TrEMBL record:
Domain ABC transporter: 31-280, 386-634
Source organism of the structure: Corynebacterium matruchotii
Record GO biological process: peptide transport
Family affiliation: Belongs to the ABC transporter superfamily.
Gene name for this UniProt entry: oppD
Keyword terms: ATP-binding, Cell membrane, Hydrolase, Membrane, Nucleotide-binding, Transport
Primary residence: membrane
Name of the protein in its database record: Glutathione import ATP-binding protein
Bias kind Basic and acidic residues: ranges: 1-15
Topology term for the membrane: Peripheral membrane protein
GO molecular-function term, one example from the UniProt record: ATP binding
GO cellular component annotations of the record: plasma membrane
The EC number(s) this enzyme carries: 3.6.3.-
């Protein structure tokens, strides 16, 4: 079972290997990690966060470490940097330029951190000191490791700020972190990380909290930084699109262990480990129109306490066999990997897996969705459930500490208009602060400051208080963070029953709660459990069941899946699609992830500074964007395909220019 060869693919192998993997690692590795294990004590027992991680990092190459929450990817990077808490138990070996790092004191490590190894963290605010201007922090980073005068360090600091794309660096150097936007702060963190020409750069989810265009810019800056310093880079991320665009090699982690390792092209085009295949199947594509549902991975990752000696993915693996439960498979090179390609997996059935199939069948079956009750009914014959016209929202700008006075007006929403029809998902996309969430809240309020909101034919401005209350049952909202939107002291039964009771539901409340739980795929035997007992995906299902309790025709989805891991997210996206088809629901949807938008929506409005700059069918907008801002936004989406990602042209939006400007992406080394 272990090493079935694929003779028929042999010629393909060679071609693929030669054409797509021209550069094998060269020279001696600058970082060698072998058999790294990290555990933490906890009340439940020892948590084995990292288990047997080994890899070599070569100069100029980028290793992408991917995995979901709790996979051990960040703990791996923290242990390389010597930043784990004292109580962490770390074994194995981490060698930087041949020198063992494990066991070094914090003082010894601080000589290597910043000089030999630079680190870019997810949250730039916590990486910068708020009380010092950025110049002081950069100069400090330089003089700590280099024998230069303060003036020389300051000159270098200005050059570094220029390199990472901060305009007017001479002036900006005296600014404080809070005066910068999130993207600019991350640029400063990158400048500090590369200030001493490190040989290794570790970026831990460096773009997770950023808007898509800023994310693309930061990834470009990291590429420039890598090119200028020649550093070897570790990119830690949960985003398959980011990995596809930046990594040369990929290490996929699951439950603290590496489960697949190869060059980026092999991992994406010919994954051989079921978990990687599941991850790719769960990831929506922003660049392809598809009516096919995503293929989620059922279940949740294990809790890393008292692990059984078995394949940890077995409970979620669609092709698990009894042998998978006797001993945890080691990460072993594939005997049938194409010539010149090093590809390893921790799966006893990898030899049988080819083209994401086993015995000619797809590993992960595409789930079947319910019949679309409105299939075949043209859009203009469908009922308009939500009509919005010339919606505006202004906020006063106040000044003065004691006596506040209005000094101006901020127009958050500047007259947007759209319709949502039954069985349709309308998305609003745009970056932070563009006004999309304000638009949602104004609609939910059913009392617009200015403009018209008509819900199922009823104009909100003419509603009495009582009518407005009754109308609210027709429009419900699901929020991003299911934990904070559900009362932790109420059981699932109570959470879902609450809106029914407040509306004076006359039927059998218990029966209805059970129906709703079944509708969203929750186990009804867990009806008396508290939200804290459930995983993130299940909690989002509880939120959805609650929203559906009043039989609304419109559901407002405010970033409904952004807090979820990709394999769990796929299940919730499918559920939303299924409910829309089965119940003919209308969705008004806001998400920053444009891939999710493309997958779930029928129509999309692109919002920029309070206005819609483009509205239309989702495929038209994604395939043929007309407005320069839309072009810029779409060109920044990371595409989970290394071939496509490497030819992707980025478009920069300049509101003053007549046409969009195409910018070349910097080549990584
Ligand atoms: S070892 Fe078995 S359970 Fe684990 S991924 Fe492979 S087939 Fe699935």
């Amino acid at each position: 079972m272990t090493s079935t060869t694929h003779d028929s693919h042999e010629s393909d192998h060679t071609t693929t290997a030669e054409s797509s993997n021209p550069r094998e690692p060269q020279g001696t590795p600058v970082l060698e990690v072998s058999d790294l294990n990290v555990s933490f004590p906890s009340e439940a027992g020892s948590v084995a966060a990292v288990r047997g991680v080994s890899f070599d990092l070569y100069p100029g190459r980028t290793l992408g470490i991917v995995g979901e929450s709790g996979s051990g990817k960040s703990v791996t990077s923290m242990s390389i940097m010597g930043l784990l808490p004292q109580y962490a138990k770390v074994t194995g070996s981490v060698k930087y330029a041949g020198e063992e790092l494990l066991g070094k004191t914090d003082k010894e490590m601080s000589k290597i951190r910043g000089k030999g190894i630079g680190m870019i963290f997810q949250d730039p605010l916590s990486a910068l000191t708020p009380v010092f201007d950025i110049g002081t922090q950069l100069v400090e980073a330089i003089v700590t490791h280099q024998k230069v005068t303060k003036q020389q360090a300051e000159k270098q600091a200005v050059e570094l700020l220029d390199l990472v794309g901060i305009s007017e660096p001479q002036k900006r150097i005296r600014a404080f972190p809070h005066e910068f936007s999130g993207g600019m702060r991350q640029r400063v963190v990158i400048a500090i990380a590369i200030a001493n020409n490190p040989r290794v750069l570790i970026a831990d989810e460096p773009t997770t909290a950023l808007d898509v265009t800023i994310q693309a810019q930061i990834l470009d800056v990291i590429k420039v930084a890598q090119r200028e310093t020649g550093a070897a880079t570790i990119m830690i991320t949960h985003d398959m699109g980011v990995v596809a665009g930046i990594a040369d090699d990929v290490l996929v982690m699951y439950a603290g262990r590496p489960v697949e390792k190869s060059d980026v092209f092999s991992v994406f085009s010919q994954p051989r480990m079921p978990y990687t295949i599941g991850l790719l199947g769960s990831t929506p594509r922003p660049d392809v129109s598809s009516d096919e549902p995503l293929t989620p991975i059922v279940g949740n990752p294990p809790i890393l306490v008292d692990l059984q000696d078995q394949c940890q993915f077995a409970p979620r693996c669609p092709v698990a066999q009894p042998e998978c439960l006797s001993g945890e498979p080691k990460l072993l090179p594939l005997a049938d990997a194409p010539k010149g390609v090093s590809h390893a997996t921790a799966c006893i059935r990898s030899g049988e897996i080819w083209d994401q199939k086993i015995n000619g069948e797809r590993l992960f079956q595409v789930p079947e969705l319910s019949k679309d009750i409105l299939a075949g009914k043209p859009r203009d014959e469908r009922k308009v459930t939500l009509h919005v016209a010339d919606l505006k929202k202004e906020y006063p700008i106040m000044k003065g500490s004691l006596l506040k006075r209005k000094v101006g007006t901020f127009q958050a929403v500047k007259g947007v208009s759209f319709d949502v029809r039954e069985g349709e998902c309308m998305a609003i996309v745009g970056e932070s602060g563009c006004g999309k969430t304000t638009t949602l809240l104004e609609i939910m309020d059913l009392q617009p400051q200015s403009g018209t909101v008509v819900l199922n034919g009823q104009d909100a401005s003419t509603m009495t208080k009582r009518q407005r209350r009754a109308a609210r049952k027709d429009i419900q909202i699901v929020f991003q963070d299911p934990m904070s939107s559900l009362n932790p002291r109420l059981t699932v039964r109570e959470v879902i029953a609450e809106p029914l009771q407040s509306l004076g539901y006359e039927g059998d409340v218990n029966k209805r709660v059970q129906e709703l739980m079944a509708l969203v795929g929750l186990d009804t035997s867990q009806i008396d459990r508290f939200p804290g007992h459930f995983s993130g995906g299940q909690r989002q299902r509880i939120g959805l069941a609650r929203a559906l309790a009043t039989n609304p025709s419109v559901i407002v989805l405010d970033e409904p899946v952004s807090a979820l891991d990709v394999s769990i997210q796929a299940g919730v996206i499918n559920l939303l699609e299924d409910l829309k088809r089965k119940l003919g629901l209308s969705y008004l949807f806001v998400a920053h992830d444009l891939s999710v938008i493309r997958h779930l929506s029928d129509r999309v409005a692109v919002m920029y500074k309070g206005e819609f700059v483009e509205v239309g069918k989702v495929d038209d907008i994604f395939d043929h964007p007309q407005h320069p801002y839309t072009k810029s936004l779409l060109s920044a989406i990371p595409i989970p395909d290394p071939q496509v990602a490497r030819t992707q042209k980025r478009v920069k939006y300049d509101p003053d220019a007549v046409a969009a400007v195409v910018v070349e992406k910097p080549e990584s080394n």
